[in-house]
Give the backbone structure.
Amino acid sequence: MRHRLQDFKLAAMTITCDKEEWLLVRVSDNKVFIKILYWGSAASGKTTAVDTLYRITEKEKKDVKPTGNLVKIAMASGSTLYFDRGVFQSTKKESIYFHVYTVAGQSRFSPLRKKIYMGTDGIILVVDAQRERWEDNIESLKELKAVAGEDLIKKIPLIVMLNKMDLDNVVSITDVESLLKDEGLWFPAGHELNMWNPIIYETIAIMPQAKNVYRSFSECARRTGLYQIWGHGFAPKQTKVKLSDKPADV
Ligand SMILES: Nc1nc2c(ncn2[C@@H]2O[C@H](COP(=O)(O)OP(=O)(O)OP(=O)(O)O)[C@@H](O)[C@H]2O)c(=O)[nH]1
Ligand SMILES: [Mg+2]
């Protein structure tokens, strides 16, 4: 994987773009820009997750480091008004940048979410694990499907954060898996997309407990790289991806 990243720019440049479609990965000044979007219902923890990702990668030596400040456009309540945006740079391949966005989760911002989605390369769905928020999670996932059309998993890797696992009365990974199956976002054994089924991480986005926040981002970034390098913008075929590609190193 690491040496393959040398080819990343070339792979990205082979993707064509017409007026209707955004490039999956943008290349400029020999730099590669990858857009990762945190999607999920209101108050599920998207802003908190990016905030925590920022803090972790600022303090500890990781595969990405933040560049500049995290821009948060929020209401007095803390709820996102437009979006949050942070830029992270790969520490292993410094020409690769991750533009990380969160959507505003409140229902009324649906048109805005559609705009923020444009040009997204990888998605992290933040599910609020609290049982009473289950219906909101379903609504949010259905909206994501409507916005992304057929691209989810096939062209855009999907990772799930089952967030707020520090609280009581929460749903389980199995519940989320069933939901993904119901929504056609889970492929059975033998299907060529099976290996790209979303990984569901149990997470805690708040500090200091912070659990699996970096790992879920890292896996989304890794898959995004594999889709571009091996699949030229699509989920690569099983035969092309070796198990040795597993470690997160973008
Ligand atoms: N207990 C607990 N609280 C969390 C966790 N993650 C986020 N929260 C809290 O949930 C609330 C909402 O978090 P945000 O990060 O603002 O949620 P959001 O998804 O960005 O919300 P919108 O911007 O409205 O879409 C805040 O009070 C957070 O502190 C978690 O893992 N555990
Ligand atoms: Mg927010």
